[in-house]
Amino acid sequence: MIHDDLHSYEPRLGHGLPHDPFNAIVGPRPIGWVSTRSKAGLVNLAPYSFFNAFNYVPPIVGFASIGRKDSLAHVEETGEFVWNLATRPLAEQMNASCAAVPPDVNEFELAGLTPVASQRVAPPRVGESPVAFECKLSQLVQLQGADGRAVETWLVLGEVVQVHIARALLKDGIYDTAAGQPILRGGGPADYFGLGEKFLMRRPR
Question: For residues 36 and 70, is the Cβ–Cβ distance under 8 A?
Answer without folding.
Answer: yes
